[in-house]
Queue: 2 jobs
Job 1
Amino acid sequence: MEIEELQAAWSQMSNELEQQKKLTNDIILDMTKQKYQNKFVLVTKYETLGALVCFIISFLVVLNFNKLDTWYLQICGVLTLSFLIILPLMVLKTLKRIKNIDISKGSYKENLSLFLKTKNRLLKLQQIGIGFGFIGLLFIVPVTSKIMSNKDVFLISFKKEQYIVFTITLVIFAFFCKWAYSGYQKITQSAQELIKDLE
Amino acid sequence: MLKETVFTNLIREHQALLYKVTSVYTDNKQDQEDLFQEVVYQLWKYFDSFRQDSKITTWMYRVAMNTAITHLKKKKRRPDVLPIAEVFIKQNDSIDDVYEERLRLLYKHLHHLNTLDKGLIFLLLEGKSYNEIALITGLQVSNVGTRISRIKKKLKTNMTKS
């Protein structure tokens, strides 16, 4: 099949569409009120909810910071707070940037480039979140354990079964992180190629 | 005339344009409907900012295509399933099988292109000159020509394969 044949099919479709004027004034005016939920609004809602949970937990950590009575637990506490505050804030900021792209200004090329760059940043942040989530176990667990049950996990001697359960959890989590990370990697890679092509 | 009346007349007059833009950037009916509404909403939102220094359709293409860029897909579908083509095709029983098959193939190949190439080939199919394509996309005219011939080659290779 030749491209000219496809062009002919497109023209035929265009002619038929021209004859099908299905929209009424009421339907059009309804659309201008944005009754449906924009998907970015939905993503932002979930991310905001997630960020709120993180902020509440970090608030509780701050309130109980005095319970972290050794230097290593305090370091774990600071790392936990940074993880719970900085990352969600950066994600929300990036989402806001995407939402604020003024599609009436700028050309297709400019907007596409800006959108891809911002989307890539968002994906990278989520990628970092996954990576940190894994490492985060090492400093979040001691903090929560100390605050909630006043136990210093670095000083407790675990039973053999507990070690096994912990190791299995780590292995499963590592596989999950690797899977999610490579998924993001593929998406950002193709976006990166398109950005390069645009520049 | 009331702003609402002018706007609804504009959308009614150019609804085919919007149907086509939204069908190129989506691969299922639900996503297309969502994008269509989003485009109409954005056109209304920026209606006052339209200046008479360009054609109204050029402005509409630009807003519609820019909106499509930021439109999120609900979920990934199999790329070869193209119910969107049926939305148009099935509306008229008299349409022949060859035309239907060509349209199906056209959408199949369009959906395999990246966002930039998709936009360029869409405008070419719409009969736009390289100058108009350059005006809408922000690319240089010479760049438009180079890119389009590259996409045509790519499309031809893909069509030969399938």
Job 2
Amino acid sequence: MELNQLMFFLLAGLILFFSVLAITSRKILRAAIYLLTVLIATSGLYFMLNYEFMAAVQLTLYAGGIVVLIIFSILLTSHISHKFEQPALANVFAGALTGILGCGVAIWSIIKFPFVTTTQPALVVDMKVVGTQLMNTGDYGYALPFEVISVLLLAAMIAAIIIAKKGN
Amino acid sequence: MDFNIYDFTSFTTWVHNALTSSMSPGWAMFVELAIVGVVFIAFYAVIGLYLVYAERKVCALIQNRKGPNRVGPFGLLQTIADLFKLLMKELIYIKNADKFLFNLAPFIVIIASFMAIAALPFAKGLHAIDLNIGIFYLFAVSSLGVIGILLAGWSSNSKYSLIGAIRSGAQVVSYELSVGLALLSIVIFSGSMQLSTIVESQANGWWIIKGHIPAIISFLIFLVASTAETNRGPFDLAEAESELTAGFHTEYSGIKFAFFFLAEYMNMFIVAAIAATVFLGGWMPFHIPGLDGMNHVMDYIPPFVWFMGKTAFIIFIMMWFKWTFPRLRIDQLLKLEWKYLLPLNLMNIVLIAFIVLMGWYIK
């Protein structure tokens, strides 16, 4: 087996193993740490693909941003002795069914997708291209989604301030 | 063997060729990774120990004392003796702590600083990985260390630890923004996120000189924000010893405490190295275009010495901060970031974009 494949199976194995742990753990902070491992291993996959920009985005936004926020809110709300109870059997069954269905859809679409194999060397992702494309209004440009998301974030921030102010 | 202290490229190629000629490429890569890892661990230990020594000496200088002076000449072996003391101390286990997370936390802090050190350019050709998004990568991994601090605080099951961790979380999450935006200003100037390109772009002058006023503003913001991000005084609320015993690492003892301690000093080294690379030219000697005689003299000093010298200078400033200013309160800390540094930073970014657009900087 090539090193590349070995690395892929290692990372994929980590992702699968810790994903299962993250949803089965009864302790909330441990679940958050398992989720962190999943997210870091995913950024490892991006590094393997030589897509360093995406890997760093994954690390900053998910591992450094969202998981820190999750852990922070756990710190403020939950006590160390707190443990979740075993969910009802019906809930477990419904959750498993949804998971299997989602998994089926994902696998089906991956198998259906016409992947083209090539022997050409991997392209370097130029930051300038990413930047101009993000602000582009032409074909495949992301100017509109970018603006819409910023409006959404503004609304969320105003809502957060109003909730925090309480009353006045 | 071809060893040149001014350019390590030939040396690293020689190592690479020697390895690939004697084993398969996969194994050669594995051995190279192991060599880099061992070198970094050794570097980490030496720098960490001597930063502790430097801190005690700087503190003593400012407080008009002598500092460590008994163990070895000038007390140079003091921190090594301290290390052995810490290694032999008992590891105390807390009865009602979450043991798995309690033991994991110091390693997360250490690993985060290790990931950052891998991307630093120490000298020409002495660079473990030269990612094309170098600065962004450093910014990304430096935000992981706080997870270890938060975990340590929560899993210790102690009120002091928890308060320290929550303070630290609020602090790092807010000051991260200023660190990122201050670095972004130099990305705009140099037009690249690759650290080697940024260093090369300073061959005719460092960015703090070429970028004049806005670069100096960014540099000052970076100094303040990165001191806060590394949880150092005057921003050391997370471990404020007068009110929280020792903050998030109150319950740690022996070598696990030493890990937090070492990581704090290494994080200081890393942010100082980033500041030196981005604002002060990294390993690039001090050049003034036109003065060829002086430029040649500067070129005789090896790049590694330049890099370490600049880093040491910034570390000295950060230690100076710690022993000069009193500790901030949490509301003052958050006010400083959200009401002063962040708006200033955003305006500075717009100013820099305008200056670069008009070409009003030294090219």
